[in-house]
Specification:
Length: 294
Amino acid sequence: MKHIKKIFILLGSLDRRIIFLIVGLSVLIPLLKPDWVSLPIRPTPESQRVFDEINKLKQGDRVLLSFEYSPSTKPEIHPMAIALLKHMYAKNIKVYGFALWPDGNFMSTEAFSEVSDDYEKVYGLDYVNLGYKPGSEAVVKGIASDIRTLYTIDLHGTPINDIPMMENVINIKDFDFVFSLSAGFPGSKEWVQYATDPEQIPISTGCTSIQVTDILPYVENEQIRGILAGMPGAAEYESLVETELKKMNISAKPGTASGMMAAQSIAHVVIVLFIIFGNITYFITQKKKGKDKI
């Protein structure tokens, strides 16, 4: 018993610099080496629904992928974009990138460049990036009615008539699925209200954690088919995609959201443990002081 008390006193009286170092390592290691620390991830029904909807798509199907987030929400939403591209590329689905936010141009360019080469996808044949147009919901309405009135060139300045993937693509009806990577307005709700609902095109979304309560009514009403909710949703989808890729004998880099969630979870456990050790040490030392006075 004395030895146990000594251990608790030692742990509870560690120099704060050592505690900061341990907490720092508990965050840093999962981020730098996610393979070293892999925590089990159990997908929610909403994340599973998103995966199932994408998994049902067939080779050659067309997916409109809309980028509606900026660097401030990148840690939550960008891992979803990467995982989605891996999933769709593995199934040979054609991806059409759009952006309702100006920063969406940078986010989409980064996502496509990070994944496309690994899957040997060719621009113009397997994916295209049409980029941002100002106008908010008016852009959604324009895509729903006639894309070519809004977009005459892609993000790189190539006329869309010269892009093989754009052949016979006129409006929202020519897509098999829409996915909205949304951090606010304009975003998922505008796609539902002005495009997918009127034309009966299936849609799913990935959004920030704070936006989930606004989107859930659409999910519950089956207007949006599943939702990836913040970083946990991104990690869940990464886990599902990784399992699917293994079945297809495709190797892929581990997702960043899983590492972030592991870092967050481990850091919280470490902090709670040190709080417990500190409290136990306090009570042991106080009790000892009381006995010494007697």
